[in-house]
């Protein structure tokens, strides 16, 4: 059973009104960079005025124009993934003020979708020219726990999931924790999906 679903008739105004996202902002990671993001206005229900600033307080470089990205709203009951496409931006006082259009269907993932499923599968893990062998011990729609005899020092890796028979064969993942385990190591990974469809496929595969 899948707990990730496309939101029909998604209303960004209602989401902002019903939560404190609009006032407090939220964190967003793009590549290796972490931003504080605030949605300042919604125009005609489909164009967002968004303020990006760096969490470290440094001045920003311009964000890529006309590139899809996903805004992630984390709420108590679940997570909204909202695809956007930045069309215009202005750098003001070290921040980026952007105009972005909604660029696809929003995905909602219920908290119960985070439930990890026991899983024993050998996988290849890589980063650049380095390759590691690991075992997925459990998996959810947002991440996995793996065991490997190798010490993985990279903060991001690529996992080969060709065994799942999905429309994609690999996933980027961020290593969020690591600990020694007898003669090897265990790692906690957060998946970094390229688009909403990938996460939906993973959810349907697991459940």
Describe the fold and architecture.
- By secondary structure, this protein is mainly beta.
- It folds into 2 domains: 4-111; 115-206, Thrombin, subunit H (Beta Barrel).
- It has helices at 12-18, 21-24, 196-206, and strands at 4-6, 26-30, 33-43, 47-54, 68-74, 78-92, 95-102, 107-110, 117-127, 130-139, 143-148, 156-160, 170-181, 184-192.
- The N and C termini lie close together (5 Å).
Mean pLDDT across residues: 84
Order of helices and strands: EHHEEEEEEEEEEEEEH
Q: How much helicity do the residues have? A: 10-25%
What percentage of the residues does DSSP assign to strands (E)? over 45%
Number of discrete domains = 2
Number of helices: 3
Radius of gyration: 18 Å
How would you sum up the major sheet? 8 strands, antiparallel
Find the structural class using helix and strand composition: mainly beta
Number of strands: 14
The low-confidence runs, each spanning 5 or more residues with pLDDT under 50, are none
Distance between the termini: 5 Å
Taken from the alpha-carbon principal axes, the silhouette is: globular
């Amino acid at each position: 059973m899948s707990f990730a679903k496309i939101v029909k008739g998604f209303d960004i105004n209602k989401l902002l009104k019903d939560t404190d996202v609009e006032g407090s902002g939220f964190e967003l990671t793009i590549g290796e960079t972490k931003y504080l993001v605030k949605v300042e206005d919604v125009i005609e229900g489909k164009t967002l005025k968004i303020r990006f600033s760096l969490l470290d307080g440094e001045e920003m470089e311009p964000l890529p124009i006309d590139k899809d990205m996903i805004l992630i709203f984390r709420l108590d009951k679940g997570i909204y993934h909202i695809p956007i496409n930045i069309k215009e931006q202005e750098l003001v006082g070290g921040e980026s003020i952007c105009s972005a259009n909604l660029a696809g269907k929003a995905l909602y993932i219920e908290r119960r979708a985070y439930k990890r499923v026991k899983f024993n599968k050998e996988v290849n893990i890589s980063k650049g020219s380095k390759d590691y062998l690991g075992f997925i011990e459990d998996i959810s729609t947002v991440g996995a726990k793996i065991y490997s005899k190798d010490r993985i020092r990279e903060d991001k890796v690529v996992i080969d999931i060709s065994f799942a028979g999905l429309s994609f064969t690999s996933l980027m993942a961020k290593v969020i924790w690591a600990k020694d385990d007898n003669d090897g190591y265990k790692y906690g990974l957060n998946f970094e999906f390229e688009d909403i469809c990938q996460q939906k496929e993973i959810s349907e595969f697991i459940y």
